[in-house]
Amino acid sequence: MELSRLSRRAFSALAGTTVLGLSLGGSVSGRALPASGASGPAPTGPPPGPPGADGVRHRVALDRHSLLVDGRRLALWSGELHPFRLPSPSLWRDVLQKMRAYGYNAVGVRLAWNQHSAAPGAYDFTGVRDLDLFLRTAAETRMYVVLHPGPHIGADVDAGGLPGWLTAAEGGAGPADAAYARHADEWLSRVNAVAARHQYTRGTGTVLLYRVDAPERARLTRLHDRLRADGIEVPVLHAGAPVPWGEADRSRDAAEVRRDHLAHLARGVTLHSVRTAFGGTSWGWLGASSAPAPAYDPTAAIDGARRPTDRLAPLHQLGHLLRHVPDFTRLEEAPEVRAADARVQVRHLTNPDTGTHAYVLRNDSAHDVTSTLPMGGTDVEVTVPARDARLYATGLPVGSGRTLAYATVTPMLSLSVGRLDIAAFVGRAGEMAHLVLDCPHEPWPTRLDEEAAWAYDHGRLHVTVPLGENGLTRVRIRSGESDRTTLLLFADDAASLRLWPYETPSGRVLVHGPALLRDAVLDGATIRLTGDTVEECGLEVWAPRGITDVTWNGERVSTSVSRAHSLLATWQLPGVPELVLPALDGWRRRTENPESAPDYDDSGWRAADLRTSRSTTPVPGGRPVLFADDYGFHYGDVWYRGRLTGAAGLESVSLAFSTGARGLLMAWLDGEPLGTHRVGGEGDGTGTWAATARFRLPAALREARRLRPDAGASCVLSVLVRRTRHGQDARRAARGLVSAAFEGASPQAGWRIRGAAAPDPVRGPLNGGGLYGERHGWHLPGYDDGRWEAVPLTGEGAREDRRQGVTWYRTTFRLDVPPEVDASVGLVLDAGGGRGNRAQVFLNGWNMGEYAGDLTDSPGTFVLPNGILRTRAAANTLALAVLSDGDAAPGPGRVRLELLGSAAGGVPVEPVASPGRR
């Protein structure tokens, strides 16, 4: 986002909308609702308290500056969490608590229609698809919800979230089609039946906003009536609404995170969205062609293993700034200000209610730039790192009548705890922070840490602090004119991630030290804290007056009162104990793909005899439809068997096929392998890869057919297609075989097709595929593999074992993680001797995704979500379905468990239902 100067008219167009999409019925209005009920804009003031299902009706509105909740301005800081990417409902609470602690006040929730609907008219909101449970959990963790049920959500999900059966349904592909609209309306009505019960306006939940896809005005009007009839009354966001909504996509690093979000702030945006707050996984056949790897978004601030990453600090700081400093909920363009060095672009904003000024500085050059900037009537020397951005403020109240004149550090939070006013500022480790306060009366500063220095001159207090690595510096300021004390805190990025403000019904709390603060409860004279530690750490608590005792995760903590007016732990909190994971051994192996044998009984398979298709891929003239979706097989691998008659003299076979990214095809003739073909290149740009596999019959096979007197009568062509995913925006493109051609003969072909069995009622439609082992439960717990061959899994394999086809491996293992430890465990596959193979990973019957060892030299890591993974002295079943091209050993390579992260703390985890073979 460029920060070039906008005209006032352009700025007003961006920030001045008075309507947020649609305002639907009930207590919701599209007009500003001043707190006093008087006309005019709502003044800047304290934000609304944390939301909850409190049983009280609430008003939600919008003026040209921000959301208004019960007449109070709310800067929305929302991050997306896709519940379907974390198939363990217990862990939804964990991630929501982390998001709240890291400054988010809202969670963006996209719903994947294909997760909930395996067939037309069939909808499932149970188990890992329990929307009601998710919304209750969001309310319990005091997070607003921005609900986005689609129907099309993008999000790198197969077909953009649309169900597989819709690819072959009647009607067109777009929302203007009547048949599509009927299906979409049914889906939204099912969602709305749940969402309506959790609307914040009703006091029964925290659903604050509702996002829809409705680019056409006629469709939007009809959708308005649909939502109103379903009881949806919260404001609605849609693609055509001229609303200042700032959404940042994936970022390379923390500097880019700062640039993107500060650019939105510079535009006057107060509705902020982090596109991926939590990464999660694209387990099963969930991911679209654009996201073929199991890890959905490796750039997310909280990764798929629920660990914080290096992109989190700026989000944490900005989230708490918008949550605890109301001056930033109403910003207007102010007179232009320029830095002395033109490489630094500047946007100058002001809050007309409070007089606070904000300066957003951006440096797009490859070098750090030090320049002067006029702030607060003074030319201030500031440094903006290369390809980074900074936010500075002047005129910001800092307690007891003192005002920030200027600072070379960024404000993070300002809050009052008892008789203490606390303001925290952040900057880069190694820099010298310079902060100047306008003081109406001569202050009495006290340096509480050795790093700080101060001087008072002509009504201004100058404080300088060298910012250390992961260190917090405190300066206390008192005055004879007030009984309130001001405490200044200075932190670098690492130290800021150990600062945890928290709002309780009895007042605000600030905690410093642990890796995470989940909850704070005031109970008489005791503050009860729960959270996580990773390493040994100190604990410092600023709490309301009357609080004298502290507990941490239920254990009493010995404290003393510090000079910073905090309760300071006498001893450090313990870190997480070391965990040792078991080696994976005891493997058993069995080969499959009997479908390739000429005498395999395929009489129960579907005859591929359709002549027309609703696919956008043309059906070859005069030939049958072979597209998998037309026969009801929408996910995973699909088998074809073609019985060829009149095949005497056959010399080669050409198989045209169409897949998503990383698709492949294997073929056999009368049980003899013809070869493997993988798609390549960039595809067609819409998520489809079309290829033609040309196989010349091996000389030995041609000779054997020539010598056999019945060779020309018939033969069986068996084809396995790993069809992978539908494109996000081109879901009707064919998947599977398209056509077959022959050289040396012109046989007649009668085709049969077989894909996945009936959808798993617990794990959902995207869990299974069409491999023989999947159809017969080889991936499930409880399957009797006692007669399988016992093998060491080294990945090398004996040379004579090399074969084209599918080989299954199974083992069991146990973990014994202490109940007070939250361990995130991953499964690592390293191709090694299995180079050239694909491995589908199943944990307790859940499809965790595919490792493409034939396309990468890098190990693949699969997050094993707790709940699906049994961590408390219980057995886990691990199954691997390995597709081998015959050139490599059939094993998956080296396989091991890896501890991705652990903490002392966490949330209680309930086992996810994982039914075994019956």
Structural class given helices, strands, pairing? Answer: mainly beta
Mean pLDDT rating: 90
| Total beta strand runs | 53
In terms of DSSP E residues, the strand content is: 35-45%
Enzyme class: hydrolase
Protein name: beta-galactosidase
Pfam families: BetaGal_ABD2, BetaGal_dom3, Glyco_hydro_35
Organism: Streptomyces ambofaciens
Observed structural traits:
918 residues; mainly beta; six-stranded antiparallel β-sheet; 53 strands; disordered N terminus; GH
Could you explain how this protein is built, in words?
Helix content is 12%, strand content 35%. The radius of gyration is 31 Å and the shape is elongated. The chain is built from 11 helices and 53 strands. With 918 residues, the chain is mainly beta.
How is the secondary structure organized here?
Elements: H1 8-15, E1 60-62, E2 67-69, E3 72-74, E4 76-80, H2 89-101, E5 106-110, H3 113-116, H4 131-140, E6 144-148, H5 178-195, E7 207-212, H6 217-229, E8 236-238, E9 245-248, H7 254-266, E10 271-274, H8 312-324, E11 332-333, E12 344-350, E13 357-363, E14 369-375, E15 378-384, E16 388-394, E17 396-397, E18 403-407, E19 410-417, E20 420-427, E21 432-438, E22 444-447, E23 453-457, E24 460-466, E25 472-479, E26 482-492, H9 493-496, E27 499-504, E28 507-512, E29 516-523, E30 526-532, E31 540-542, E32 549-552, E33 555-557, E34 559-561, E35 567-569, E36 588-591, E37 606-607, E38 637-645, E39 652-659, E40 664-669, E41 672-678, E42 689-696, H10 699-707, E43 714-722, E44 736-743, E45 748-754, H11 772-775, E46 789-790, E47 804-816, E48 821-830, E49 837-843, E50 846-852, E51 860-864, E52 872-885, E53 894-904
Parallel strand pairs: 4-5, 4-10, 5-6, 6-7, 7-8, 9-10, 20-26, 30-32
Antiparallel strand pairs: 1-2, 2-3, 11-12, 12-13, 13-16, 14-15, 17-18, 18-21, 19-20, 21-24, 22-25, 23-24, 25-26, 27-28, 28-31, 29-30, 31-35, 32-33, 34-35, 36-46, 36-47, 37-45, 38-43, 38-45, 39-42, 39-44, 40-41, 40-43, 47-52, 48-51, 48-53, 49-50, 49-52
Helix pairs in contact: 2-4, 7-8
